[in-house]
Amino acid sequence: MRLKIIHKESPEIYPLVDEIRKLALSMGFVLDDRNADLILAIGGDGTLLRAIDYGKPIMTVKAGRRGFLMDVEPKHVEEALDRLKKGDYIVEEYPLIKVKFPGGEREAFNEVGVLYDEPESIVITVSISGTSFTVEGDGVLVSTPQGSTGWSMSITGVFLMTKDSLEISLVSPILTPVKSLIVPRTEINLIMESKGYDQKARVVVDGNVVGNTKPGEKIVVSPSKNAIIYRFFKIDPVRGIMSWRK
């Protein structure tokens, strides 16, 4: 089996990365950056996001400050690699979403957002399944179930435990007690409304600014393919959320 290793860029984990490289080679794996069968991600949540971009199955090794979805501890890497050779693992799928915005299209593992960082509000109309509503505030996030453990949780405190739903989070909404809506996994349209003068909001995918939008332009968020992660040990996102500061 051909592996591509990606890792967190931190001197603290370079010795671990070297150790895993040597271990993988000694166990008969081939390290191949161009034609890998599997991505071995060493780090935390940020490293996992990079691994998703390759579109290959992923094995995760936890070596970051936060890694709710990383299941293999460094001391168990040899056991996990041995089980990988034997096919002794669980295939877990994570639903992605894609976003079409002026000038581009991207896939997201965690969330898509339309956000404003000026000291004033924006108005966004959200449309889903024939229903629409308009909200004024700092923006709107659309999160996947796995994304609900991150940015959106700091806004709403909600964790999605089912993979057939999405969360619409309202960022600092004005004149509404509602902070989020749990909706079916379907297409969601976001349109920034005019307030009578020029405004420009950011389009954000997994924490990165990928573009901008102006009043009247449609942002389309829709279901996409699934990311594949091979699991060797049980993970508990709820426990991780409650105890990661310890």
From TrEMBL:
It holds the Pfam family NAD_kinase. One of its GO terms (biological process) is NADP+ biosynthetic process. GO terms for molecular function: ATP binding; NAD+ kinase activity. Keywords: ATP-binding, Cytoplasm, Kinase, NAD, NADP, Nucleotide-binding, Transferase. PANTHER family: BIFUNCTIONAL NADP PHOSPHATASE_NAD KINASE, NAD KINASE. This is NAD(+) kinase. It comes from Metallosphaera cuprina (strain Ar-4).
